[in-house]
Amino acid sequence: MRTQVVIVGGGPSGLLLGQLLHLAGIDAVILERKSRDYVLGRIRAGVLERGLVDLMGQAGVDARMKTEGFVHDGTLIGYDGEMFRVDFAHHTDATVMVYGQTEVTRDLYDARDATGGDTRFEVDNVVIHDADTDAPFVTFDQGGESHHIDCDFVAGCDGFHGVSRKTIPDAVRTDFEKVYPFGWLGVLSETPPVNDELIYANSARGFALCSMRNAQLSRYYIQCDTADSPDNWTDDAFWDELRRRIPAEAAETLITGPSIEKSIAPLRSFVTEPMRWGRLFLCGDAAHIVPPTGAKGLNTAASDVHYLNQGLRQFYADGDSHGIDTYSQKALARVWKTQRFSWWFSNLMHHYPGQTDFDKKMQLAELAFLRDSPEAQAAMALNYVGLPY
Ligand code: APR
Ligand code: PHB
């Protein structure tokens, strides 16, 4: 069997790339290790930058997002019992869209079904061969049978634990990593959001975030120990702790209810360089991870997809390889800036074990500077709505 591009991984990166390539008449086969239901069951962040909103439009999958998503033109930052607002629309010409990653993925699968695109679920033992030659191929097992696909290019969209990144030899690749000494305990509940904009709260007891999916579905997080388990937290204990960490005016109006999902995510910053090896290109979590503060994971994946889509289109349209040759450089330039923002925002908002009184004063001074300085707010707003591609 032969196709133009094998896409390893049917998460949002692989699906968005597949859809954009399809619209350019470029054939792709998507190989996904899990079932479709499993992929659609994962709960991830839900804030889309303007760039991703535009890409959803280009991919023709923005209809539901436009009706069900919420445009947010600012966010609240809580500390020291009070809140201030960063107004994105005032400081930039842009806003963000609150729309769950699960919904993005569902819309992309629906679009893929409509195009009749070849998507293989529950595949095993994906191996990428000869990526450093002009004739790469991919082998995999499915339903007890072995398969072989010849292709022009391989897009490694298989997340942090995938095979694509590891296909690039150690001698060629450099990994950069920072692991944070805490995690986020997240709860999804069928309750109205406490506020119509997100609230990021720094408190002496640790970070908290009030987010949402829609008018009847809220998403809340509290910073927790990396060794903690969701089983240690009853719903009541979670709500009590959340209330202690957010400013009183929000705590007083918080509506609580049973959790419908509760999980802990570790926090990590990770980048691999380069993002291309021969005819293999890494996209999204396969190449980089950000801590969730600021919700840049999916958004950074989207900018990779944008650069790769442009490069491949240029190659197939007129044989010009400039776009794919500069892919890694362009993607990484933006990835590192987004890493900086996610790292800065994480440092600003969390309580660190072993933090000295001086360190705490620095955090508070930086928060006060952000509260009082329009220039600092403009810098935050620019990053939050998303740096240009
Ligand atoms: N073979 C085939 N598929 C694989 C393999 C493999 N060896 N390993 C992993 N996969 C699949 C996973 O099952 C998953 O569905 O690749 C997909 C990768 O999807 P994500 O982890 O969601 O990564 P990505 O598509 O890059 O999405 C970007 O943004 O908010 C962040 O981490 C969040 O998922 C999000 C990401
Ligand atoms: C979420 O809604 O899950 C979310 C929102 C903003 C973040 C992180 C997560 O910064």
Would you write up a description of this structure?
The strands form 4 sheets. Strands 6-5-14-15-16-13-17-20 form an 8-stranded mixed sheet. A 6-stranded mixed sheet has the order 8-2-1-12-19-18, with helices on one face. Helix 1 links the parallel strand 1 and strand 2. The chain is globular and about 60 Å long. 38% of the residues lie in helices and 28% in strands. Adenosine-5-diphosphoribose binds next to helix 1 and helix 10. The site of adenosine-5-diphosphoribose has 28 residues, from helix 1 and helix 10.
Strand element count: 20
List the ions, cofactors and other small molecules found in this model.
adenosine-5-diphosphoribose, P-hydroxybenzoic acid
Specify the number of helices. Answer: 14
Distance between the termini: 35 Å
Q: What share of residues are in beta strands?
A: 25-35%
Q: Low-confidence parts, pLDDT < 50 over ≥5 residues? A: none
Structural class by secondary-structure content: alpha+beta
Q: What percent of residues adopt helix (DSSP H or I)?
A: 25-40%
> How many whole angstroms does the radius of gyration measure?
21 Å
- Largest beta sheet, briefly? 8 strands, mixed
Strand order of the largest sheet: 6-5-14-15-16-13-17-20
Mean pLDDT: 97
Q: Based on CA inertia axes, which overall geometry fits?
A: globular
